[in-house]
Amino acid sequence: MKETLLKYLDIPFILIFILVIFCVTLWSAFSFFQITWLPAQLLLFFFTVYVIALVIYWIRLFIISKQFQEELEVWEIIQKKSVSLALSMELNLCFSIYYIYGAIRYKSDWFAFVAFFYISLTIARFILLREFCFNSESLITQYKRYIAAGYFMMAMMICMFLMILMVVNNNYVVSYPGHSIYIAAIFALYLIVSAVKGYFRYRKYKNPLLSGNQMISISAALLGILSLQTAFLPMVDRYPDDIHKMNIFTGCVIFFIMIFMSLYMIIHGGRQLAHGIDEDGNRIQR
Fold first, then answer.
1. How far, in Å, CA of 243 to CA of 249, rounded?
2. Please, how many CA atoms are within 13 Å of residue 75, restricted to the half-sphere of its CB?
């Protein structure tokens, strides 16, 4: 029965367009000539129902095909991003080892906080990378990874808060040897631009893995901003009061951004698990 019904509905789109025009023309003719013959009206009624069914069927096909195309695009993007995510995770792991070594050797609280920040960053990227490489179609698993990454963002936020306290209260200054400060500035600018660009580029897909990856990238860029400001300002501004005010302002902005991102990931992910996804792990259409 279902196959027979689909046989009469699955016709070319141009034919549907012609039938719609023909149906509208018939209604106009019946209205203009005031045709009241019952058999003709019944035929027109059933013909109109058939045309409406065709239109609904093709609209549904269009929506399904568009959703499938978006899912295919997301899958292709995830495969490409998995390589860059793996490289970023390995780079963060190297930074973690370097700063752990620096914290032990130089007994530096700053290095210890940065090391813990990069450890949390590495774990968060690893959580997402597992889902990138072994991608499950179920959004339930993806949002659980998304929420877990949000909790590690909270850990990074605590590290950032302690670093901001060191900068504001102890006037801590990060020093870069030679001209490496300019290389660090270019790298931090690249992180900021790529993270923000990626966030606005991939947000339309509403995929928790892509969104979580961009959130983590933005947090890494914020650390670069804080470190560079503490190094640059003493070089260009000789007034300690101005430097102190700028550090307070930048520290507060970065801290509140980190709070917002981590809480958003946890709360938004929890809401999606509670109300936005069905038992089969598919997104509920609203």
1. 10
2. 11
Give 265's strand partners: none
- Measured between alpha carbons, how far is residue 3 from residues 6, 9, 177, 281 in Å? 5, 10, 74, 28
- Is the model more confident about 185 or about 99? 99
Tokens describing residue 63: 């929506």
Q: 277: which DSSP letter?
A: B
pLDDT at 262: 92
Contact 20, 51 (CB under 8 A): yes
Give me the half-sphere count of Cα atoms (radius 13 Å) on the Cβ side of residue 238. 0
The rounded distance, in Å, linking the Cα atoms of 43 and 29 is 14
What residues pair up with 283 in beta bridges, in sequence order? 277
**What secondary structure does DSSP assign to 87-99, as a single string?**
HHHHHHHHHHHHH
- Residues 6 or more apart whose CB falls under 8 angstroms from that of 131 comprise 141, 142, 145, 209
The answer, yes or no, to whether residue 286 has pLDDT greater than 60, is no
Written as one letter, the residue type at 80 is K
For 93-131, give one letter per residue: b (16+ CB within 10 A) or e.
bebbeebbebbeeeeeebbbbbbbbbbbbbbbbbbbbeb
What are the sequence ranges of the domains in the chain? 2-60, 72-276
Tens digit of each residue's pLDDT (9 = 90 or more) over 107-129: 888 888 888 998 998 888 888 87
| The predicted structure's pLDDT at residue 279 | 53
Q: Report DSSP state, residue 203.
A: G
State pLDDT tens for residues 48-107. Answer: 887 787 777 777 666 655 555 555 565 666 666 677 777 788 888 888 888 888 888 888
Amino acid at 71: E
